Amino acid sequence: MKKIILIITVIFLLPIFASAQDTDNGTDSGQSPLDDIQIKMESIEKRLDEQNDNIAALKKENEEAKKREAAKEKETLELKENLEQTQEDLDSLVMTVNEEHSSSKFSVYGFFDTTFYKAWYDQKNSVLITQNPPKSTFLMNNINLYFKSEMTPSLEVLVETGLSFAPLGHETNFPADAYVDGKLVSGLIDSSEYKRVDTSIPGGIASSSLRYGSVSIIRAYLDWKPRDFFNIRVGQYLTPYGIWNEDHASTVLVGVYYPNMMNHGLVPDSQMGLQAFGSFFPSDKLQLKYAVTFSNGRGPISTVMDLDENKGVGLRLKAVFGGSKLKVKAGGYGYYGKYTDLERHVESYLNADFSQDFSSGSPIGGALKVTDKYSEWIGTGDLAFEFFGVKLFGEYALRRVDYIHHPVMNDASQFVQNGDFVDDRKEPSRYEQSFYGIAAWTLPIKKLDTVSITPYGGFDYISLNDSLDWAKQKTLRFGLNVQPSPYVVLKAENVIDMFDDWLGGRMVSVAAQVAVSF
After folding, report:
1. Checking CA distances to 412, which of 63, 99, 313, 510 falls within 20 to 30 Å?
2. What one-character DSSP code corresponds to residue 194?
């Protein structure tokens, strides 16, 4: 830097010396040479100061550039470290989710209920005592266990079993006693004995005796769910109709009893086969659901064998609207199928001299003999409203039975309808229908945040045969549902059942139930 200053100084001094020489040669500018040199030096110093300022500015800018570069490198390093940390956190989250999914891959849960029941009959000798407990009693209707496995996000299996004390206490035969002019005439109608199943068996060595029960397979299926709008279910599944058939836990049911249409099986409660189902979401508040069922249909042994080539088909449609103040659910299910019952016989073919007949290829053959066959059309509808804790809901079901092979009407129906047991009348084709409506209100008691109290009331009607005037039942029910916990529901219910006088007239019953889910 000093060399540069020296060179610049020399360059500027050369003109000065030249000027001084000219002065010596006789040229006079009116100013002394020293003054000129002073002026030149001041100019040089000024320019030097400017250059120094420029150099200082360049150094400062360079230093700032270096600082910015260092800051940029530091920021890049921090971003890299943050990215690596984010990746580690993401990997940890994925591992946690996978672990949680793996831990919840298989689950077991269920529900059961215990009920106290007492009934009173208008007629002391009402035939209804053969269908209901004649004395006050405790009973357990449901002990259901669920086994669920989620193998992948789109594959899952659900198995529901029902445990029961049955067949303990099942009455296999009711003797029919006949009274003529108020006196019992033995053997006039039925001379068989009363039979009731006792499942008591002795235990092993040094073990007490025990009573065995039974296990029912309510449903068992595999779900493949690739999309919300398209899913496939294969196995034994619950028919997708109504409000409670699929979600039938005692803790979900408002009252103690299922509706009559479920108790009397107007719609098949389950089917063995295939189901396609899915959902669409036109808006945040609206969901549209569908289900198409294809199965063995209804039959005496439909879960293990279809006794005809006709498959049952059905279609379920449902809309769910969920607003802030109002929730509405509306749906319907249509079903068509054929019921067939038959006996499989082994036949021997003989000639007139009782020798084996080989005319058909073999002297031994088989035959299927139909004993009962009909087609059935079923239509159902369900509607539910919920607003400010008030629930209004109900269902309707209509079934048409067209017999192809009419079975013989059972003895009790023949006697009530015709006054005898000897007329082998056939079961007629018929319509069956049922509907119910229930109103329930969860009381808005703020002091009981963890407890919900819901009074309810409803009406239920069923006609099991439109050709039989007496085959009808009307039911009024009133009750209180108290839920102190999400897992426990306490219920108390009063039921008034109204039958035809031929069937015993009116029956009044009370029931109290504890329903538990776990």
Report:
1. 510
2. P
